[in-house]
Amino acid sequence: MRIGLFVTCLGDTLFPSAGQAAVRLLERLGMEVEFPEEQTCCGQMHFNSGYADEGLALARRFAAVFEGYEAVVTPSASCAGMVRDQLGADAVPVYELSEFLVRVLGVDDVGAYYPHRVTYHPTCHSLRALRVGDGPVRLLSSVRGLELVELPDALECCGFGGTFAVKNADVSTAMLADKMKSVLETRAEVVCAVDSSCLMHIGGGLGRGRTGVRTVHLAEVLASTEDAPWQP
């Protein structure tokens, strides 16, 4: 299957390892992955800031850049949700990574090895926009060596919410404190999620608190094998 990788703005500038891991994983599963260099922002930042026309224009440009691919895969539920919300599910076949693996390829076990205690944070867009369900948990549960521990109050938002964290900083910080408390209760080594934006927010708080807990994108966990372990 010919796949177009949408790396996202945040992935390109701050978390390139998530996109690189997605490529390694998809190629290991036999996919032909291409990276259209014309890709830019999906328009979510503009749309969330009140610039609806500009956001829609970028979403339409996204569809034009990725036209012809059997599927577009992205390590970001929020960006996939943006494109679907604005253009409709039939306009461009864009999928968040775990959604593509479980629902399109029908794969739960990707042959990963990750010997760490991990907790999973289900991001708001993955739950409420894309409705990925238990796909990420099924994938993590099949990783050899991984001890998956349930996150208390998992369905609660981490407080990032794109521009919400900027416009409502005090509320966002309070929500983050609750999420970090839940993470620390699990005694996990790693917090995993499908959105780098949430991991950036949670990781910032955990880092400032010197907790020693790492944040790792789901793609990096699934791309890790005994021969090619993920490196922090």
> What is the radius of gyration computed over CA atoms, rounded to a whole number of angstroms?
17 Å
Q: Give the biggest sheet.
A: 4 strands, parallel
Number of helical elements: 12
- CATH architectural grouping of the largest domain: 3-Layer(aba) Sandwich
Helix percent reads 40-55%
Number of domains: 2
Which CATH first-tier class of the largest domain would you pick? Alpha Beta
How would you describe what is shown here?
Helix 11 (196-208) links the parallel strand 7 and strand 8. The chain has helices at 9-13, 16-28, 44-48, 52-65, 77-87, 97-104, 124-129, 135-141, 164-167, 169-186, 196-208, 218-223; strands at residues 2-5, 32-34, 71-74, 94-96, 117-120, 147-149, 190-193, 214-217. It has twelve helices and eight strands. A four-stranded parallel sheet has the order 2-1-3-4, with helices on both faces. The protein is an alpha/beta fold and 232 residues long. It folds into two domains: 2-104, Rossmann fold, CATH 3.40.50; 117-223, Rossmann fold, CATH 3.40.50. Helix 4 crosses helix 5 and helix 10 (169-186) packs across helix 11 (196-208). It is globular. Helices cover 47% and strands 12% of the residues.
What is the fold's blueprint, element by element?
Elements: E1 2-5, H1 9-13, H2 16-28, E2 32-34, H3 44-48, H4 52-65, E3 71-74, H5 77-87, E4 94-96, H6 97-104, E5 117-120, H7 124-129, H8 135-141, E6 147-149, H9 164-167, H10 169-186, E7 190-193, H11 196-208, E8 214-217, H12 218-223
Parallel strand pairs: 1-2, 1-3, 3-4, 5-6, 5-7, 7-8
